[in-house]
Amino acid sequence: MNVLRWSVRVLAAVGLVVVGVWLVSRLMPMPKAQRDALALLRPVPAGLPSGGNAFDGIWLLGFDGVPDAEREGIVAEDGTRMQRLAERPDDAPMTPVDIASVAQGRYPQVAEVTLPCRWREAGCLAQVRVDPDAVEAALVAQRGLLKRIDALSGDSHYRNRFSADARLPIPSFNLLQRSLSAHALAHVQGRSDEALAGICSDVRTAKVLMSHSDGLVPANIGAAMIGGNVRLLASVLAELPVEHPLPATCDGVFVAPVPQALSLCPAMQGEFAMVSGSIETTPSGFAWLALDKQKTEGLLALSMAGACSQRTMEALAADIPAQWPVASSSPRRLECAANALGCIVARISGPAFDKHGLSLQDAGARLRLAEALLWLRANPQADAKAGLAQMPARLREGARPLLLSSDGTSLEVTSYYGKDNGVAFAVPLPGTATMH
User: How far apart are CA 165 and CA 270, in angstroms?
Assistant: First the structure.
């Protein structure tokens, strides 16, 4: 009996300690670092940007024959449906039919196709030349899509029109990649001005996605588009006489961007809103014992707000890798006692965020490289080495200087992002292919 009484007392004491720790954890104020991070990720609401929203066009890219007059109504109808889906409990399943656009039942979808060119791969022209007839045949059914992709260059920003909920669909951004093969084919078939105009159009769109979007996916898609189109531009210019003019639509496209244009902050703010919107406000059952929405947001903000810090802006200005420290991910902290689920979410999500901005920095370096190529075309010198020496310092110098290849036929710049880290992004110099 004494043993039983002692055991009950021990269990009661342990229970009191557990409850006490939970209460202390729950009542702990949010640390200042987290409050500051939240302030960076929740800017004062501003008015909607002027100009067209690329979301509408990209959301409906996969549907042929949608009249311009009906596009806004379809997107609005889809938005209403997505809002209703976002109001479902987190454990309620969403089927492909649920998240599909209403356009799916009204207009034909773009045919699936296999095309040779990819944004992150070299050799686009060579791959098209393997069988240009096959590429041309594959693109016949893509003509409407290609026109819609070209029209996106007139938009000024990208704002997701759906609720901030990670469970909802995003547009099929990969459809944008199909135009790369079309531009390469145009040049291979002798329509070089058409190819150049298309490349410039795509880069305009890419710069909007990279610098004026509210999500990590569109920002990174924009960066990839820039890299692929700069590489194709250089390949085309290598095969044209240096005096061949670029279309007027290319004016101002290939210019080294200002540091602010490479900031991941606007995209991260949109990403934070989506992640935050996916955290349950009123957890079901006993989940509330292990989830505090506000404190989970604070933990996530610590890992995301580095994109908006002054330190990151200074790194962008110096063109050095913009990285920020990741907050402690250990769940064995007092603040996690009453927010175990939130700490797990933050631990899973946090470490990856500081890598995304490097792809934008690489895109900026590649635009600088493209501007340098155009400068060399406009200012011919005795040889490439002399041309590089005469080039404005802002283009050739810096943390990642432009370098000539050993044979003097290509120009390269170092990469920072992911698997490309340290690898040179190399493109041929203008007119070099015509010398052989």
Answer: 11
Please answer whether residues 208 and 221 qualify as being in contact, where contact means their C-beta atoms are separated by less than 8 angstroms.
no
Region 329-353: what's the mean pLDDT?
65
Comparing CA positions, the residue from 230, 187, 238 lying closest to residue 429 is 238
352: tokens are 């990856």
How do beta strands 403-404 and 424-428 pair?
unpaired
Through-space distance between the first and last CA atoms of the chain, rounded to whole angstroms: 99
Residue type, 298: G
Closest of 154, 146, 152 to residue 177, by C-alpha:
146
For residue 404, which phi and psi values (nearest 5 degrees)? -85, 145
- What integer best gives the mean pLDDT of the chain? 87
d(Cα 96, Cα 302) in Å, to the nearest integer? 34
Phi/psi for 425 (5° steps) reads -90, 105
Q: For residue range 207-248, what is the model confidence (pLDDT) as tens digits?
A: 999 999 999 999 999 999 999 999 999 999 999 999 999 999
pLDDT band at 426 (very low <50, low <70, confident <90, very high): very high
Q: What is the DSSP string of 332-389?
A: -SGGGTT-HHHHHHHHHHGGGGGGHHHHHHHHHHHHHHHHHHHHHHHS--SSHHHHHH
